[in-house]
C-alpha cells in the first residue's frame, strides 16, 4: 500500500508548465546559452547542469555588483524559470544579491521526470554550480524554497551546517500532510520537512499567508516553531498561496532579513572549527549521497506505518486530488506576482575585477572558445 500511495502522491505533486514558457538557444559566435524570448543581459548567465541522477537541468545566474550574498531559489509548482525570470531580476536588484534559479528535472527545458529524489539531485547540482563556477562559499548562500521548493531546500539545508540563512515561502510540512491532517510521519510520505527542519542550524525566515487554501497556514507556523534559530516570521493576513509578492510587507521584510543575516553572522559559526573538514569532504559529490534521516530509507515505525490513523473520518479517502490541483498556479497569477515588486533597471556598472577573476577561474573564456 505504501509504495502505491507514494507513487500516487509523487504523480499528483508535480505540475510542470506544458508547454514550457521558454526555449534555450545557443549564440554561435560566443557559444553562450540564451533564454528565449528574453533579451540577453550581460549580467545573466544561462547554464545546463548535469545532476547525479543523469538529468540535465537549466539554471540562470544573475550577478549584482558587489553582492555579499547569493540566493539559491527553488520555485514552486506549475512554474518554470521562464515564468520566474523577471521576478528573479527584481529580487536580485531589491535585495542586492546574486541569484541562481533553476528548473527541476522535467520542468522547462530540463530533462528527465519530476520526482522527490530528482529534485534533491537538482538542488545539489545548482549548489555545486555556485561553488565551482562562481566561488560562492557556504556562509554566503541563502536557500530560498517556495511551496514544493521547500522540500529540496530543507533537504539540502539540513546537511549544510554553515549556511548564511534559509527562507521558506508557503512551505509544506510534508506531501501527505497537504492532503491529510496526519500527526505522525509515514515512510512512504514525500518531502518530510517536519523531520528535517530541526537539523537546520542557520537563521530561518518563514513567510506564509493566513488564508492559504492550498497549503494551510498551520504548515508554516509549525515549521517556524521547530526552527533552531528563529527569525521574526511574516504572517501575511489574507494572503493566499500564490499572491504573497503582492503585499508590500513581503519585499520589506525579506530585505530586512537579508540585511540582518549579512550584518550579524549566526552564532553557530563562532565555535565550529570541526566543520572545516566537513566542508572539504562536502565538495565531493559523494557527500550528497550520504544517507538522509527521513527520505532515503524507511524509517523505524513510530507506531504503525502500514495504514493511516484509524481515528480520521470514514469518508476521508486518499483521493483528495482537488486540493493538489490547486497547486497548478495559473500563468496569470504568476504574472501578477512578478509585477508586484516595483521593477526598475539601474544603469549597469562595468564588471569589476572581482567578477572577472571569478569568471576566469572557471575557464569561462575556454568554454566560449570551445563552443
Automatic annotation (TrEMBL):
It comes from the Eukaryota. Residues 262-313 are annotated as: Disordered. Residues 273-312 have a biased composition (Basic and acidic residues). InterPro entries: AB_hydrolase_1, AB_hydrolase_fold. Residues 71-171 form the AB hydrolase-1 domain. PANTHER family: ALPHA/BETA HYDROLASE DOMAIN-CONTAINING PROTEIN, ALPHA_BETA-HYDROLASES SUPERFAMILY PROTEIN. This is AB hydrolase-1 domain-containing protein. The lineage of its organism: Eukaryota, Viridiplantae, Streptophyta, Embryophyta, Tracheophyta.
Amino acid at each position: 500500500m505504501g509504495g502505491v500511495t507514494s507513487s500516487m502522491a509523487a504523480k499528483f505533486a508535480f505540475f510542470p508548465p506544458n508547454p514550457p514558457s521558454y526555449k534555450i538557444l545557443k549564440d554561435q559566435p560566443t557559444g553562450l546559452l540564451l533564454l528565449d524570448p528574453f533579451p540577453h543581459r550581460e549580467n545573466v548567465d544561462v547554464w545546463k547542469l548535469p545532476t547525479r541522477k543523469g538529468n540535465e537541468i537549466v539554471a540562470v545566474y544573475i550577478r549584482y555588483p558587489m553582492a555579499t550574498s547569493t540566493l539559491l531559489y527553488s520555485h514552486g509548482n506549475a512554474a518554470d524559470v521562464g515564468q520566474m525570470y523577471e521576478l528573479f531580476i527584481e529580487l536580485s536588484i531589491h535585495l542586492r544579491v546574486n541569484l541562481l534559479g533553476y528548473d527541476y528535472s522535467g520542468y522547462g527545458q530540463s530533462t528527465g521526470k519530476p520526482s522527490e529524489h530528482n529534485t534533491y539531485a537538482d538542488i545539489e547540482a545548482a549548489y555545486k554550480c555556485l561553488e565551482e563556477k562562481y566561488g560562492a562559499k557556504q556562509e554566503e548562500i541563502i536557500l530560498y524554497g517556495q511551496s514544493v521548493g521547500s522540500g529540496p531546500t530543507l533537504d539540502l539545508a539540513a546537511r549544510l551546517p554553515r549556511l548564511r540563512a534559509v527562507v521558506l515561502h508557503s512551505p509544506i510540512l510534508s506531501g501527505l500532510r497537504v492532503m491529510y491532517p496526519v500527526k505522525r510521519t509515514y515512510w512512504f510520505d514525500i518531502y518530510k520537512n517536519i523531520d528535517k527542519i530541526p537539523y537546520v542550524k542557520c537563521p530561518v525566515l518563514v513567510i506564509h499567508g493566513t488564508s492559504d487554501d492550498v497549503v494551510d497556514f498551520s504548515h508554516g507556523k509549525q515549521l517556524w516553531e521547530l526552527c533552531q534559530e528563529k527569525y521574526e516570521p511574516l504572517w501575511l493576513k489574507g494572503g493566499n498561496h500564490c499572491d504573497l509578492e503582492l503585499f508590500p510587507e513581503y519585499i520589506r521584510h525579506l530585505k530586512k532579513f537579508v540585511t540582518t543575516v549579512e550584518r550579524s553572522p549566526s552564532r553557530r559559526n563562532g565555535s565550529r572549527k570541526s566543520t572545516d573538514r566537513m566542508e572539504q569532504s562536502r565538495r565531493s559529490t559523494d557527500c550528497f549521497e550520504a544517507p538522509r534521516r527521513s527520505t532515503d530509507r524507511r524509517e523505524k515505525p513510530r507506531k504503525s506505518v502500514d495504514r493511516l490513523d484509524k481515528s480520521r473520518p470514514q469518508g476521508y479517502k486518499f483521493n483528495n486530488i482537488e486540493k493538489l490541483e490547486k497547486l497548478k498556479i495559473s500563468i496569470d497569477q504568476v504574472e501578477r506576482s512578478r509585477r508586484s515588486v516595483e521593477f526598475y533597471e539601474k544603469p549597469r556598472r562595468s564588471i569589476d575585477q572581482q567578477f572577472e577573476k571569478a569568471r576566469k577561474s572557471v575557464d569561462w573564456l575556454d568554454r566560449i572558445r570551445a563552443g
